Amino acid sequence: MHYLNISFSHKNSTMEIREKLSYSDQYHLNACLTKLHNHEAINEVMLISTCNRMEVFASCNDVRSATEHVFAMLSEHSEISVDELEGRADVFDDSSAIHHLFAVASSLDSIVVGETQIAGQIKDAFRYAGDHNFGGKKLARAVHHAFKCAAKVRNVTDISSKPVSIASVAVSLLKSVLKDIDGKKALIIGVGEMSEITAKHLLSSGADVYVMNRTKEHADGFAEANGTKVLDYSELPTAVNEFEILFTATSAPKAIITDEIIKPCDFDRYWFDMALPRDISCHKDERINLYVIDDLKNIVDENMSAREDSARMAHGIVGRSTVEFFELLDTLDVEPIIKEIYSKAFEAANAESDRVINSGYIPKEYSDQVRKMGEQVIKRFLHDMTYKMRNNSDESKSDTMAGAMLSSMKKHTCEAPHGHACQFFVKGKINEKK
């Protein structure tokens, strides 16, 4: 069994590429995961698709075959050639795949190092894979330990002591160009987590915040929870020409603000498109200041210098957590074999104890002591051998030892477990693809 991660992120792909690779609705997401999971080389798979990254994380039995299939699938979906995708992607397998997953979960690979949204996005991707039987125990084990690593990073370092998200950076950028937004009207389109963070930052700065959403009930609920006002979505063509400040963060499959509804205005407008695919598609207008996700990198770079020490410490935690994870895998591989060895040895000792007692060699009133002595002899004999099996750090030697022990048992019932259930695996069955 191998782990495989194929990653397209802000580090190696433009926004246009990430847009083409994204899945804007569950129908297409489910179709992609189905085709990936049905391939003979892939056992379990999940897909992390956010505004900054699109990653396929899988367990597989053949890394090369699985990698070729993933690129073929993504090429078909995005209409980007396999050659270009291979040239852009970061491909990780086994220990490097786990290290990358842990780093992503710990927000060390984000545009804004230390932002907290990525953990929820991974959790959603993992839950979706589990609920639809694309994920199983192998993914559960890896994701569970990724969250443990991320928690350790948060607790040991101060990298997230002042949580920063794309939304908060966008508001910071707005405040840097407008100086003062107290009393200014701002419109937020969309009611997801990104919009909620934006609303809180705008309100705390004194802005007069409105929200609109295609589903009016969702906008009303958002407004009640966050203290904003509501505009009906039908007013969008008018609102874009009335509001000085606009934030969009919807899951629309295509742009909702285009040249058709944009009119010239006698004031400057500041628009922040935080969606992928993008919500805004318009030609250059000198009085429209449009910022997209990649434009936020300048502020991110400024924040990075203050976080360098924490980031170095966090990377150390990720490295150690990766090593511990594979040490655990080795332990899990041999533990059921050790249990089987002891079971068969105790069975033999008890059978021999019964034989000598039933033959009259030892009085029956000493039967309990005889059985206990036999088990103690077995434990003493096996102790050193099983200790070495548990603590053998050489993966190849561990595999050889485990294979030899299994082959020496004529009838063994043990199977090395595929991992612990993740605490975030809430609904779906643990799927095992043979």
Task: Please give a structural write-up.
By secondary structure, the protein is of the alpha/beta class. The protein folds into 3 domains: 2-156, Glutamyl-tRNA reductase, N-terminal domain (Beta Polymerase, domain 2); 166-295, 3-Layer(aba) Sandwich (Rossmann fold), CATH 3.40.50.720; 334-384, no CATH class. 53% of the residues lie in helices and 13% in strands. It has helices spanning 15-21, 26-37, 63-78, 82-88, 95-105, 117-131, 137-156, 166-178, 193-204, 216-226, 236-239, 297-358, 367-390, 395-408; strands at residues 2-9, 42-49, 53-60, 90-93, 185-189, 208-212, 229-230, 245-248, 257-258, 269-273, 280-281, 288-292. The strands form 3 sheets. Strands 7-6-5-8-10-12 form a 6-stranded parallel beta sheet, covered by helices on one side. The radius of gyration is 28 Å and the shape is elongated. Mean pLDDT is 85; it is low at 410-420 and 424-431.
Record keyword descriptors for this entry.
434 residues, Rossmann fold, 3 domains, 6-stranded parallel beta sheet, 4-stranded antiparallel beta sheet, 13% strand, oxidoreductase
